[in-house]
Amino acid sequence: MDQKVKISIGILIAAFITTITAILAINGIQPEIIVMLSVFALMVITIVLVKMHYGDRKRQIMLVIGIIQVLSGFAMVISAFPYDSNPVNLVFLTLLISMGMILIIRNLSDNRTADDYRIQDERSLRIGTYGLSYSWYLTFLTVAAIGWITGTEMTTISGAQICLILIVLMPVSARFFQWYFNSRGDVY
Amino acid sequence: MKTRMKEFRARLGYTQADLAGRVGIRRETVVFLEKGKYNPSLRLAHQIAKVLQTSVDELFLFDDEEENLKGFYEKQEND
């Protein structure tokens, strides 16, 4: 599908959700639902912004939206929003802050890359693919090790801790392997 | 494998960025190609040769060809 079509669809979905949210707010529906729909709309916008190819202008927009999301999230924490009364509220609150941080970090990292970084040639695709493959294999070994350790009852690791380990391990190891192969020149 | 990309690039007055732009690859890729640290696919080798107005055989040298070329240049100097 064409890049512009994808962006247009993403923006239309976000606009639709925002409209529904506004209508619900006018009719006095519970604030949690409104927040949920707003966060979902922002999530769609975030995904569109991260995936699209953009110039300086759009990168500024990304940074502004990221900052707004993070500040909104923290504002909800210190305001009267009942985020701890319902686990779902907490999920959407953390999602809002996380999305904002992703946009900000992505913006900052893009400022440090070369202008032709967006070109995907055979070398960058090969290195990217190998990096992800090595990361997947490392994650598989880690999961196996965790299963072995917990199965033999050497220690107890909760599901949330395992998820956190994998969430950090997978992207960090993928970037590390990609950096390593890139510095060598090739994957062989 | 070694390459004569730098030599042909210099003849045409291209920078690494120029060559990368004309071929449609990153400048970083050109850097590693010239250092001999990356082996291109046949398609990419052909594209680069086309832009540098030469052939793949002239541009990329395998080990035994390097020795032949070294001997060729030494012979030229002696003559």
What is the end-to-end distance of chain A?
A: 33 Å
Percentage of β-strand residues of chain B: 5-15%
Biggest sheet strand line-up of chain B: 1-2
Low confidence ranges of chain A: none
Structural shape of chain A: flat
Distance from N terminus to C terminus of chain B (CA atoms, Å) equals 28 Å
Proportion of residues in extended strands of chain A: under 5%
The major beta sheet of chain A can be summarized as:
none
Provide the residue-averaged pLDDT of chain A.
80
Average pLDDT of chain B: 87
**Secondary-structure element pattern of chain A, one letter each:** HHHHHH
As residue ranges, the low-confidence spans of chain B are: none
Q: Class by helix and strand content of chain B? A: mainly alpha
Cα gyration radius of chain B (Å): 13 Å
Radius of gyration of chain A in whole Å, from Cα?
Answer: 20 Å
**Envelope shape of chain B:** globular
**How would a crystallographer describe the biggest sheet of chain B?**
2 strands, antiparallel
Itemize the secondary structure elements and their pairings.
The complex is a heterodimer of chains A (188) and B (79).
Chain A: H1 3-26, H2 31-51, H3 56-78, H4 87-111, H5 122-151, H6 159-184
Chain B: E1 2-3, H1 5-12, H2 16-23, H3 27-35, H4 42-51, H5 56-59, E2 60-61, H6 63-78
Explain what the structure shows.
- The complex is a heterodimer of chains A (188) and B (79).
- With 188 residues, chain A is mostly helical.
- Helix content of chain A is 79%, strand content 0%.
- In chain A, helix 2 (31-51) packs parallel to helix 4.
- The model of chain A has no long low-confidence stretch (mean pLDDT 80).
- Chain B is built from six helices and two strands, in the order βαααααβα.
- The longest helix of chain B is centred in the C-terminal third of the chain and has 16 residues, at 63-78.
- Chain B has helices at 5-12, 16-23, 27-35, 42-51, 56-59, 63-78; strands spanning 2-3, 60-61.
- Helix content of chain B is 70%, strand content 5%.
- In chain B, helix 2 crosses helix 3.
- In chain B, strands 1-2 form a two-stranded antiparallel sheet.
- Chain B has 79 residues and is mostly helical.
- The model of chain B has no long low-confidence stretch (mean pLDDT 87).
- Classes of the chains: A mainly alpha (188), B mainly alpha (79).
- The A-B interface holds A 114, 116-117, 119, 121-124, 182, 184-186, 188 and B 17, 20-21, 24-29, 32, 35, 37-41, 43-44.
